[in-house]
Design goal:
single chain, about 150 residues, Rossmann fold, about 40% helix, about 20% strand, Sig_transdc_resp-reg_receiver, Response regulator transcription factor, phosphoprotein, CheY-like_superfamily
């Protein structure tokens, strides 16, 4: 993994005020990936549009995609196996210059401290609340645009 990585260009906010983002989604469980995509939809908020989803089922695929750039927000499943999203988040945050914002999915609300340890930008616990997922994704997308 490169340590001087710049994304392939930040998400855009067109003149219409819509933040268009590319989302990387990691979980070894396809039902979790489906639940996240369904919760967020194409428009997690009025001013945020997901233009593409890049789904990964392995940590190696996540690292490869992040190295390639073009990711505006990453969603990592902390319950994924054999590599959990929390440890993977910490690795990405430590190794990627200007790492995109990361939303981690924790096993339960009491695991919020693990999300802090992982350096995640936000966390949503299982079972996934669609409103919480959409709001967190939209908030991180807006932050990415303002930093970009």
């Amino acid at each position: 993994m490169t340590d001087a990585h710049a994304p392939a260009g930040p998400s855009t906010q067109a003149t219409d005020g819509i933040h268009r983002v590319r989302v990387l989604l990691y979980s070894d469980d396809i039902t979790t990936r489906d639940a996240v995509r369904a919760a967020a939809g194409r428009r997690p908020a009025r001013d945020v549009e997901v233009v593409s989803w890049h789904e990964c089922a392995t940590a190696e695929a996540v690292i490869e995609a992040m190295d390639a750039g073009g990711v505006d927000v990453a969603v990592l499943d902390g319950e994924a196996a054999p590599t959990g999203g929390l440890g993977l988040c910490r690795q990405l945050k430590n190794e990627i210059f200007r790492c995109p914002p990361v939303l981690v999915l924790t096993g339960r609300p009491q695991d919020a401290w693990l999300a802090g340890w992982s350096l995640a930008d936000d966390a949503v616990p299982h079972p996934l609340d669609p409103i919480a997922v959409a709001e967190a994704l939209a908030r991180l997308a807006r932050e990415r645009v303002s930093v970009g």
